[in-house]
Amino acid sequence: MKVREIMTSDVTTCRPETNLAEVVKLMWERDCGVLPVVKSDGNVVGMITDRDICVAIATRGWTADRIAVRDVTAGNVRTCAPDEDANVALQTMKAQRVRRLPVVDGGGRLKGILSLNDVIRNAGAASPTDIVSTMARIGEHRRPKAVAGA
For 10-15, which contacts have Cβ atoms below 8 Å and span 24 or more sequence positions? Predict the structure, then answer.
């Protein structure tokens, strides 16, 4: 099964300069916990999650309207292609420990988003064993980074 057959095509996005208050509003209105971050040309440059927002606000002591998406997101985003096999995309999710992948064309422009739930809801997209092992890998606790001098 191809990614294009099971991905979500109607995706709300934000820009790097969008403030977190606006992102939260978009997430609330669309009932989602992640938005792809795109430049004006439609190229994906990151992803922002509701968790990213919570941690940013809690650790910076600023209100959400004073923090830009670019100040929170990392520039290393993993993607998949519309014609990629869904099981290959699932293996990327597993390796990168992410629940969602932006779907981009050859030029890096957003075409949709593929979530772990999309794979689960579509029988035949991947084996139950592959789905469970991916979920287990994503859910593993990460060890905190060692603190210098500790």
Answer: 11/36, 11/110, 11/112, 11/113, 13/37, 13/38, 13/110, 14/38, 14/48, 14/69, 15/39, 15/40, 15/69
